[in-house]
Amino acid sequence: MADEPKPDGAEPAAGAPDPAKPAVEKPVAAKPAAPAAKAPAAPAAHAPPKPPAPMAVTLWESDLTKQLKDQFGEEISEFSTYLGQNFLVCKMAAAIPILEFLKLEAEFDYLVDLTAVDYPKRPERFEVVYILYSFARNERIRIKIAVADGAKPETSTVVYASANWMEREVFDMFGIQFSGHPDMRRILLPEEWEGFPLRKEYGLIQQDDRWVKENLNIESGH
């Protein structure tokens, strides 16, 4: 005899969930705890940065250096480039003829600057530097000469009139006098000032206290 359908509320078949009983949730496995955050590591002690390697002085060769070699020979002892700046080193007596050649034959018609550097340990203590520029060539060069303490290089005002005040400033700061200059006297400091402030033996805060006292009526300007 076939099984009759069971009315609502009848016992569920074996293994079937009983709708009258609340479902029992299965326990969920606990997630592993996240590892504790590590304290930030102390910054490593950094070694002081290494100073950059000194830039090399390289040989300067061009059509201009060839012309200068042909014209002046051993009067010029060096043609070099440093940090993209071309320069030559010549004998003191050759400076003015070289300046004239560069102005008249190579179109270096602008004297940018004329200055000096003090090297007390050198036999010829000072280095006078002429900086020239050519508008036509868009080129800049330096001419360097060694000058002994007490020596008087020839004035370059005969080539560049603008050298007048530049040479006076070199005299005022370094004590280098230029032979033939039309007005060789101080330009920044009073004529009575003692000493030359850009010489290496002249201290950073040194001054002519006598002049300050006599002219400003104070003991010291420091």
Structure, explained:
The protein has helices spanning 63-72, 95-105, 163-174, 209-216; strands at 58-59, 76-82, 85-90, 110-118, 126-134, 139-147. The protein has 222 residues and is of the alpha+beta class. Among the domains are: 58-163, Beta Polymerase, domain 2; 192-222, no CATH class. It is flat and about 125 Å long. The chain starts with 57 loop residues before the first strand and ends in a 6-residue tail after the last helix.
What's the short story on this structure?
With 222 residues, the chain is α+β, with helices and mostly antiparallel strands.
Features:
Beta Polymerase, domain 2; 6-stranded mixed sheet; 6 strands
What's the arrangement of secondary structure elements?
Blueprint lengths: L57 E2 L3 H10 L3 E7 L2 E6 L4 H11 L4 E9 L7 E9 L4 E9 L15 H12 L34 H8 L6
Parallel strand pairs: 3-6
Antiparallel strand pairs: 1-2, 2-3, 4-5, 5-6
